[in-house]
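task queued by scheduler; priority normal; single chain, no ligands, no partner chains; default sampling; output format set to structure tokens
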Amino acid sequence: MAFIFAMPTQSHAQDLSNRKIKKFVKKGRKAYRKEEYWKSKSYYEKVTNANADKAQYWFEAGLAYYDSQVKREDAITYFEKALELSEKDTIPELLYYTAKTHHFRGEFEKAIDFYNIFLSNITNNKKGQITRQDVIREIEICNNGIDLRDVHLYSVDEITNLDQNINTEYMEYAPVLSQDENLILFCSRRPANGVKNQDGQYYEDIYFSTATGRDSSFVQAKLIDKSSGYVSDEISKGKAHVAPVSISPDGKVLYIYKENSIWKSERNEEGQWSIPIRMNQNVNIGEANPSIFITPDETEMFIVSQGVDSGYGDRDLYYSSKDENGRWKKPVNMGPKINTPYKEDAPYLSKDGKSLYFASQGHNSMGGFDIFRSERNKNGEWGEARNIGTPVNSAGDDIYYIENDEGTLAYYASMRPGSYGHLDIYTAKYDCKNIPASEVKGYAIYAENHFPVSGLIKVTNVGTGEEMGAFNIDPKTGKYQMILPPDNSYRMELIVVQPGYTQERPHIEEFYLPKQCEVYNLFQQISISRNRNENGELVSQQAQFKHIFTNPDLMLKQEFDIDFSYKENNTENTGGISGNLAHSETEKAEDVEVLLLNEEDQILRITETNEKGDFTFEKLDTASSYKVLVNQDDAIKSYNDWDESHPSEFYLEGKLTEYTVKDQVAMPETTIYLAKEDKILNDMAVTDEKGNFKFTNPTTPLAVMEEINDTTTITYNLDQSDPEILYSALLTTIDPDDENETYTERVDIVELKKLTESDPQLSEYADLLFDFDKFFLRAKSENILETLYLFMKENQTVHVKLDGHADWIGTDEYNDKLSKKRALSAHKYLVDKGISPDRIHNAWFGESKPKVANANPDGTDNEANRQLNRRVEIKVEVPEMADLYLSL
């Protein structure tokens, strides 16, 4: 908003002091109108130092500071004094500029207050309506700033001004960096040759500086001209804008902006850049092209163009790639996810080609230009632009963002409080470079017995909506792994098949994968519980998600003093020990640590009870002898949590069971010990013939537990045969409330619906029926197999068994072969659709297993029944479950 000074009426009756003040004001106004702001400020300093009592003078002094763009933030002192002196008759424009200055200082709430007051002073004419819309937009931007205060897409160590060797009170921007970071080129509008443009500022010129060492400091910048040795002739004769745009990785090609177009200069063997040549019309489009970015391999180009009819706003980003002949294709507008009705500028593509950075005055900018990032998915589509947040962005202009090769240091131009003036070049030092992809190791088990879960996990990037893939859980081990880029939020959808039931919806879990500076394993555990009603029927399914998103191997070292590296050295043991702890029939002992020791009193395994009091040690050699220890402190805490009326008493009961995949038997005459810290206490219980045991008021008084000396010391010798079991042990040691650990856990419950014969999903898997003496598939059979195919495609761990049968007409040998052909015809259909053959198991039984009798009671032939026996019976096999017969 432009402001024209209102000249006060002259008075002849004034003393000498007032005459001097008016003289300085007159000179200050004259300098202001000539845009000589530094001179205007010097005169107004004399006025304000004299403590003038006119609000108009203080307002004008503030304007000189604000419009000088040098120490703009200091204008607030003068505006506040003007407000103090004009309480009864405030100048409306004073309200506006006070708001603008608070806005620039990042004081968004104060700015909004003054913007709103100013709105009430705007006249309701055509000009006033335009002004009103502009102010409403400024309020919207301030609200963006409030929302973005805690948004930091990067962990920034420090923001640094590149000091006075680079920056001046004039504008410095558009930094270009050599690959070795030893040379920086940038644009400045300082008085190199004393020639000013029509906007009252000096023309753009290219400056350069070289680094003094690894501390990224630079020597005094110099103008690139013929005398500098960097160019063979003058790039500009003084009356034209020239600015650096980009430099090739080898430092031999420099792209510059000149005469509203992009030009190209090549460096010769003597180290000089040639006189630039204007690039063709597939680069220079529209009325002006202030900026481009060309990828290091010169296969992609991002262009900023102004005045194109197809644009979304005043200045848009366009994209081009090379055709088969190595020529740039016609640029294409990048669309509304990138471009807005406002200005976009200064594109930069990260070294991995996935992140596009650019500046925009639109989207959710917090003031002027902000730097935004858009992520490219595997299909080449760009995601929504995200403001990279503070502290890189400020309430002023932030633009021309680039990074060094390691991605640890960003260079960009910013106009913010504390700058030398106008735009200065800053660096943002990041704590480290985020690795492009990280591996998440997963382990899915059933809570009651730790048997592996069979299921499928789908993952979607929350920010971009990109589908990251479907990950199968190995039905034999319960393990899975996901490759995902860190520093992103993800949504998981978990499908676990319970035969005869349908899930109301997939289990849903959202998690944030933090920035990862170095490669290490991450771990995720899913524990499935099946909830039943009083009739023993499944009613719901519970999934507990636990995530360790910091280095679990390092945590193992710190917690157990063991060095562990992830190896696929899985145990072949299929047995284990399970148990339950409770304080009564209704009160279960939850979150109690349970330890498994060998005969040498070394801890092999660690686990803890769930909310039902269950615990399990899986994949054990059940022929070996073990000791089971219960953490007494946990047990007492669990007891007191539900019965605080008896804090000095203690009761614990439980049961131990030894199991294999097929059998589960009680463990009689097994000793259970209590443990405290690293001691096995004297208190013990022995299981009866049903595997039951109990503790009633430990014989060792609680008050003297700390003084126990005559107990056995236990040491760690954790079983490292299966990494997931070791990581599961680590989970029991983590305090969920400890903010120092990158750990999360959450429970999600979904309802289960029991299928009946009337359910379409069940009836569609009817037997495949065949014509007499035939093995070709009927149309209805193909429909059934198509439904089966879709089910198997969705549930990648599910296997199917196809059993072929025949009626009683014909010899046994013939019917055996016929039933085989029928099974194989169904087999072929599924394989042709893409189902792996190793997921299909075939069997054939001839006429030996009729579904119904082939004959009537009187011995006559029953043709209708024989039709039911000419069939292929479908059995869907879900791991750890009995076969599910899906036939009518």
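post-processing summary
- Residues 156-430 form a domain with the Tachylectin-2; Chain A fold (CATH 2.115.10.20).
- The radius of gyration is 38 Å.
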